[in-house]
Fold:
Amino acid sequence: MSKTDNTTPTPAADALPDRLSTDPRSPYFNADILSRDIGIRFKGVEKTNVEEYCVSEGWIRVAAGKALDRYGQPLTIKLTGTVEPYFRTKA
Structure:
């Protein structure tokens, strides 16, 4: 009898990852999850301009106005506080 199990547990349908980014170059980018309508509550206030978040470390990254870096990507600033991601609609 073999004890190797090649199956991996699947996450819950309504579970969001601890860290998620909207930048396709990021290792935390997930197109499947981003295709759903995701909301971010930061310090109890709804935020619509979040580029990346991390729940366990308690921060979000938001665009710093219209400023761009030398590669044409928006400059971001890191804000710390309580992060609450959620799906706005059910699957």
About this structure: Helices lie at 31-34. The first strand starts at residue 19 and ends at 21. Confidence is low (pLDDT under 50) at residues 4-10. The beta strands are 19-21, 38-42, 45-47, 50-54, 59-68, 74-80, 83-87.
